[in-house]
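Comment thread on ticket #2218

A.B. wrote:
> Attaching the input chain for the structure job we discussed in standup.
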Amino acid sequence: MSRITTITNETANPEQKALLDAIQAQLGMVPNFLKVFANSPAALRAFLGLHGIANEGSLDPQTRERIALALAQQNSCEYCLSAHTAIGKKAGLTGDEISANRAGSSQDAKAAIAVKLARSIAEHTGEVTTAELIEAREAGYSDAEIVEIITHVGMNVLTNMIGKASRLEIDFPKVALKIAA
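C.D. wrote:
> Ran it. Output below, let me know if you need it in another format.
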């Protein structure tokens, strides 16, 4: 049971209900983390706006999911790991690729650099080295794409914190975290 109220159609005020209905119409479901965000319609609108705009960037959907998987594992968010495993599979990621992403890499050489950079950004709260930025540029990432990687790190850290703080009920096929040896 979530430690923060999950807003449902039955408990929603008119503003919350309108937001949940819009999500339902777009996704065919309302994931539990968005039901927690719905406690604050302003926070939900902010997240949905950032998410929608960030997904208009030039990073491909697979790389965005690779980053989400790497950070969910790194930040120990089982909810997000489960959600992004399902979403990643729909985006075309294989089981082996998902395993590589969770370990902080990728089977795709260019994407591996993005995942590595994303993990470093999260781990060091943005204090990445010049060498890491040069490596990303040499892999073919423009400064615009590097900014998009940073943006996706921020969004994923936010959702990881929502998932962990609220201890959401997982409404995707459950995927267990890998515990470091």
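A.B. wrote:
> Thanks. Noting for the ticket: The chain has two domains: 14-54, 61-166.
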